[in-house]
Amino acid sequence: MRFTAVLLVLCALPLLSDDGAAGDWPSWRGPNRDDISTETGLLKQWPEGGPKKLWTSKDAGLGYSGVSVVGDMLYTMGADGTTPESKEFVIALNVKTGEKIWQTNIGPFLENGWGGGPRSTPAVADGLLVAIGGKGDVVCLSVTDGAEKWRASFTELGGAIPSWGYCESALIDGDKVLVTPGGANGTVACFNLKTGEKLWQSTEITVNAHYSSILPVDHFGKRQYIQLTESKVFGIDGDGKLLWQQDFPGRVAVIPTPIYKDGSVYVTAGYGVGCMMINVTADNKVEKIYENKVMKNHHGGVVLIGDFIYGHSDATGMVCQNLMTGEQVWSDDKKNGSKGAVACADGMLYCLEEESGDCFLVEATSAGYKEVSRFKMDPQTTQRNPQGRIWTHPVIANGKLYLRDQDVVSCYEITP
């Protein structure tokens, strides 16, 4: 088995919090959980050898957590070793220098055969940060100094730790924190951001958690939250009431954040599963539109630009798929190795290949695969598990590109 980081995205949602400037990246997959930056005026082509590297830090520790960037601070998670006594932590770096500002232990080390340490990305809003450890510790910290404000435990909520640990990234939506412990007490739980008080669990849906992160949407003027597990994709309202559900044939590991557009919900997974799109009406009736194997996104995610989905599909390579019809528009015929992660900014796809560490810039167009530039991430870690890869997603924030490989985080200038 391999660690999977499958993922799906939403297009054109309102911002989830008021923290930071327009170019900030305050949580998993960015402000709209779609891996799409709203920034413009970025480089359309990189110099030979890649964009200018501003700094490299080797303080992030072991793990595959993504980075969140708000103002002058970068936040991520790691582990300080590989022994039973090791701890997982949240770390804050200065985005201008890479200097460590603070570090706070949050729970015990998660160990597995594809590389231990946390996979979750911190969520930042209103001067607070919420992180989820691999064993299900949910911790709220001050962004100023890392002081702990409150904590909860997925196991105390009735959850069972999945094979690769809890990989979900918490959702902060206004004054709520939504997470997915899974289990008989309720698949989704909701807390008050400021106090940590548990507000509810979704008792009408009680399937186990897999590796997905919750997607907030405004569905015909009403707020709801969409989540994907190994067996179902479903929507709940702001009180945890089940609104709709659809069976999904997940296998081994499912980690997608569903895509939502105008009532259409799209999900994908690897291990031969493929993709599916359903339509959810204003009164929450569900109709399956298609299910096929054009996009079998094992990990690294997909992005939705207009009506086209871009991402790596197992055994096919980089693929462009028509969202509405499900048809393949083009593929790169596996020109770029096994697979990788993708994000988008200013009409360009930022792709990171998991084996080589090559980062390449591709036009986000349905007209065909058009690579513009590439460079190799350097340095890379010397601490990666032999079975691990570069699985952390690229992040674009405030004119900078951030790449992570375990303990190594590098920052690049991508403005002219």
**How would you classify the quaternary structure?**
single chain
Global Rg: 19 Å
Structural class: mainly beta
Shape: globular
CATH H-level name... which superfamily? YVTN repeat-like/Quinoprotein amine dehydrogenase
Q: How many domains is the backbone divided into?
A: 1
Give the spatial strand order of the biggest sheet: 1-27-28-29-30
Which architecture per CATH?
7 Propeller
Tell me roughly what share of residues is in helical segments.
under 10%
What is the fold named in CATH at topology level? Answer: Methylamine Dehydrogenase, Chain H
Which class in CATH terms?
Mainly Beta
Could you tell me the number of beta strands? 33
How many strands, which pairing sense, and closed or not: the largest β-sheet?
Answer: 5 strands, mixed
> DSSP strand (E) fraction?
35-45%
User: Uncertain runs with pLDDT below 50, 5 residues or more?
Assistant: 1-20
Cα end-to-end separation: 43 Å
The residue-averaged pLDDT reads 93
Tell me the number of helical segments per DSSP (H or I, 4 or more residues long): 0
